[in-house]
Structure formats: structure tokens, C-alpha cells
């Protein structure tokens, strides 16, 4: 490459005929670039707590998921099946220490669309992922949980005095 550049410079010199060049001066310039991940996103979710219930009626609870991405980044938020998913029942379940289950559902804040991960891992295909485009500000996503009543599903086992829990992985893909 240097040889070619020198040839080009030498052939360009005759264009300046009649000008006598007597000396040279030089300086240096630093050239740098920093590679960044231009679409780095973060995600947080608040806990969902159904509180105390005797199972006689459905119980609702809410959570807020916050997605934080640079401007104009498209993303998908997914909700996996949780630790106690039952393919036989087809629902997520909270369970107590004896692994007795109570079915629950997750939906968007209007309780219209079931939330899942059909767009990614597909562990809970009965629900959809939430799409979005970041404005550069944190994007809140409201989540409603619906704990089923004792008599809605045969698999529900309400045992007074015990705590039921589950853990759902919430993921953002961008």
C-alpha cells in the first residue's frame, strides 16, 4: 500500500510545476474510536403479591416491568412458564412447600392478553410477548396476575396457613 501511495504522490508533483519546495514541516494527529454496544437494554420487575386468600374467589395482583433502552431500539419482553408450570393444566402455578398447586395467569394491564414467551423460548406458548420501541426513557409495562379460585380447576389445592410462590423469568430481547 505504501508503494502505491508514493507513486500517486510522485505522479501528482508535476501538477505543481513552477513552485519550488524548499522544506517540510509535520505534525501528528491521534486517531481513535471506541466500540460500544449501541443497543444495550436493561429490565426490572416489581414483585407480585396476591396477599392472603381463602380461595373462594379469584384474586388479582399487579406488577410493573420497566424496560430501559436507548432511543429507537425495538424490543420484545417475554414471560416464561415459571417454576411450577403444569402442561396438564396448561397454566402457571404457585406452589407451597408440599408442592400443592394453585393456578394463576399473567396478562397485560387491561387483562386482555395473556403474557408468555411464544416469541422466544416458547416455554409458555399460551401467552404472547410484549413488543415495544424505546424513546430513550424507561418504558413501563403493567402486568396483572389472576389467582384462580379453589373450585375453578381440579388441580387447585388451597391449604390454610401455607405460603404459595413461583418465580417467572422476565426477559427483554433487543
Short description:
With 174 residues, the chain is mostly beta strands. It has 1 helix and 8 strands.
What is the mean pLDDT? 81
Uncertain runs are 1-17, 32-36
Helix/strand class = mainly beta
Number of distinct beta strands: 8
Widest sheet, order of strands = 1-2-7-5-4
Tell me roughly what share of residues is in helical segments: under 10%
Strand and helix order: HEEEEEEEE
Number of helices: 1
Strand count, sense and closure of the main sheet?
5 strands, antiparallel
**How much beta, percentage-wise?**
25-35%
Characterize the overall form: elongated
The radius of gyration over CA amounts to 30 Å
Through-space gap between termini: 40 Å
Topology summary:
Layout: H1 2-12, E1 42-45, E2 59-68, E3 74-79, E4 92-95, E5 101-108, E6 130-133, E7 139-147, E8 170-173
Can you walk through the features of this model?
By secondary structure, the protein is mostly beta strands. Helix content is about 5%, strand content about 30%. The chain has one helix and eight strands. It has one helix at about 1-10; strands spanning about 40-45, 60-70, 75-80, 90-95, 100-110, 130-135, 140-145, 170-174. The strands form two sheets. A five-stranded antiparallel sheet has the order 1-2-7-5-4, with no helix packed on it. Strand 4 (about 90-95) and strand 5 form a beta hairpin. It is elongated. The two termini are about 40 Å apart.
Amino acid at each position: 500500500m505504501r508503494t502505491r501511495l508514493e507513486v500517486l504522490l510522485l505522479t501528482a508533483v508535476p501538477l505543481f510545476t513552477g513552485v519550488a519546495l524548499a522544506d517540510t514541516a509535520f505534525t501528528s494527529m491521534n486517531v481513535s474510536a471506541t466500540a460500544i454496544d449501541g443497543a444495550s437494554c436493561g429490565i426490572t420487575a416489581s414483585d407480585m403479591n396476591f396477599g392472603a386468600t381463602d380461595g373462594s374467589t379469584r384474586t388479582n395482583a399487579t406488577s410493573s416491568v420497566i424496560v430501559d433502552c436507548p432511543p429507537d431500539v425495538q424490543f420484545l419482553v417475554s414471560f416464561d412458564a415459571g417454576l411450577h408450570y403444569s402442561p396438564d393444566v396448561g397454566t402457571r402455578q404457585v406452589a407451597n412447600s408440599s408442592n400443592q398447586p394453585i393456578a394463576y395467569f399473567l396478562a397485560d394491564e387491561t387483562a386482555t392478553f395473556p403474557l408468555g414467551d411464544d416469541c422466544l423460548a416458547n416455554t409458555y406458548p399460551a401467552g404472547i410477548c410484549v413488543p415495544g420501541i424505546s424513546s430513550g426513557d424507561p418504558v413501563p409495562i403493567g402486568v396483572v396476575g389472576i389467582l384462580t379460585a379453589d373450585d375453578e380447576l381440579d388441580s387447585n389445592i388451597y391449604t390454610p396457613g401455607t405460603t404459595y410462590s413461583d418465580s417467572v423469568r422476565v426477559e427483554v430481547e433487543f
